[in-house]
Amino acid sequence: MNVNFNHQNAEMLSRSLDGSLSLMPLSDIFQWVEVSRRSGTLIVNNDESIKRFYFEHGALVFVWSECEGERLCEELAEEFNIPEGRILEHLNVAEQLGISCLGYIASQEGVSQESLNDMITSLVKKILSNTVIWKVGHFRFCDFLPPSMHSSPVTLTTSHLLLDSIILADEEHLDDNAGVDRVLDEIFEQIRKGTMDIPPIPADMGKLMALINKLDPNLDDIIAVITDPLLVIKIFRVCNSPYMGHHGKINTLREAVIYMGMKSVLSIVTVHALSGFSPANADRVHQVLHHSLMVGMIAKQISKDMHEDREQAFVCGLLHDLGWIVMIEILSNYDIPADKQRDMIRDHHATIGYLVAKKWNFSEEIQDVIRYHHDPGQECGAANMVRIIHMSDMLARNEVPLDEEEIPFKTNSTANPVFPFSDSLEELSQEIESILAPL
Predict the structure, then answer these.
(1) Which of 283, 307, 297, 7 is nearest to 146 (CA)?
(2) How far is CA 119 from CA 52, 63, 290, in A?
(3) How far apart (Å, rounded) are the C-alpha atoms in residues 201 and 66?
(4) Host H or E run for residue 424
(5) Tens digit of pLDDT for each residue in 83-131?
(6) Cα-based distances in Å from 360 to 142, 170, 200, 339, 366
(7) pLDDT band for position 182 (50/70/90)?
(8) Edge-to-edge strands of the sheet including 40-45?
(9) Cα–Cα distance between 146 and 10 in angstroms, integer?
């Protein structure tokens, strides 16, 4: 883009007002400009974009944005069938001559003032509706108006534009939420009716679970089911990790199953199966599994301090975000913006995970942990384990609570809480990355 509406030297010589949009929102600035009938340039920016609004005697006469869907040249080209290159030439000539750029384009291309006014009004509303919702950012108003903005054929009433843009922004927000609600309604209705394509339990998991749930499980039968070489290596990586606390190296599946326990091995099989669950979102799934393994190892240590079942804590930690992975795959089938997807997964992964765990016939304790790990105050049969996983989840995210009521474990010798791995989270993270690393 060769057009330059900055005029920085002239702006430096003019009076200006600077501030934060969190203290003085865009709507207030526009009203101040209109009431005081000011002429000048308003520049607003956040971390992602910069937009410029040009005023003459309180009326909006021009706007400039480089954001997708807000570019003046593209809108003019589409509306009036004018090549963008020719529009740029007109803008440059108008700036060099110091005459109205919109007036020059209209005269050169035979565009009526009414049509031009309608097009600019529509563009301004679009830009404003996307900008008026900014909660943070910076603004600068200077009383310098470039010569190419003077005597514009387009003069728009600021207050009317602002009101229409706020209404448009509210409607778009409601539409977005409505779209998200429709997707959620559809997902939960499919789950309720049993028509949702919740993934079937992986074959190895199903076989292992059937064997483990026998009254007298046979170790040799369990070992015989684990035939995937990649899975075997992953089991060895986990049980030989220094964070698992084993002294000496484990070299056989029999040793691994005896040391870790059957349920722990089953959970590793689950993680292994989930790692290939959504190939198109492999990186996102990897991040969830990385976090889950951290939670499992931290929970194992916390449960030791609390004299709870260490193996079960490890299993619950590994599986607590099962719903997150399933929702990544489910929502990939919908056209939903990435930020909306993240919000939906954050808000509903526990419920979806619980429903999947129930379908896969996981124990009620695991189901409760998955369902309530963000709500440890909820009454359920696995309240202690839920609190352990909740705390482990926070520790894995490096979010240690200050409220003593949230701390479920203390040392025997002091009232100060013990936070496993709190001084070595980075080392634990690196160890887990090596466990999950491709072979």
Answers:
(1) 7
(2) 17, 12, 51
(3) 49
(4) none
(5) 989 999 999 999 899 899 999 999 999 989 889 989 988 888 888 888 8
(6) 64, 42, 7, 30, 11
(7) low
(8) 16-20, 138-142, 40-45, 50-56, 59-65
(9) 9
- Structure-token match 């600077």, residue found: 18
- Residues of 208-231 as b/e, b for ≥16 C-beta within 10 angstroms? bbebbeeeeeeeeebbebbeeeeb
| CA 63 – CA 127 distance, rounded (Å) | 9
Surface-to-core class of residue 296, CB atoms within 10 Å of its CB (0-12 exposed, 13-18 middle, 19+ buried): buried
Q: In this structure, are residues 373 and 408 in contact, taking their beta carbons and an 8 Å threshold?
A: no
- At residue 179, the pLDDT reads 56
Is the Cα dihedral 141, 143, 148, 152 positive or negative?
Answer: positive
Reduced DSSP (H G I as helix, E B as strand, rest coil) percent helix, strand, coil of the chain, to 5: 60, 5, 35
Which token pair is 395?
């520790």
Amino acid at position 322, single letter: L
Give dist(CA 299, CA 318) in Å, integer.
Answer: 9
Q: How far is CA 88 from CA 2, 60, 94, 424, in A?
A: 8, 21, 10, 57
Structure tokens at 249: 């190296």
CA distance 297 to 179: 39
Cβ contacts of residue 378 below 8 Å, gap of 6+? 372, 386
Rounded to the nearest angstrom, the gap between the alpha carbon of residue 268 and the centroid of all alpha carbons in its chain is: 27
C-alpha count within 13 angstroms, C-beta hemisphere, residue 169: 18
- The rounded Cα 19 to chain-centroid distance in angstroms is 29
How many residues in total does the chain contain?
439
DSSP symbol at 214: S
Is it the case that residue 290 has pLDDT exceeding 90? no
Measured CA to CA in angstroms, residue 242 lies from 72, 125, 249, 392 at distances of 60, 60, 10, 18
Domains of the chain: 8-175 (no CATH), 197-436 (1.10.3210.10)
Amino acid identity at 106: A
Q: What percent of the chain is predicted at pLDDT more than 70?
A: 80
Q: Is the pLDDT of residue 408 over 50?
A: no
Quick one: tokens of 432?
Answer: 């887990």
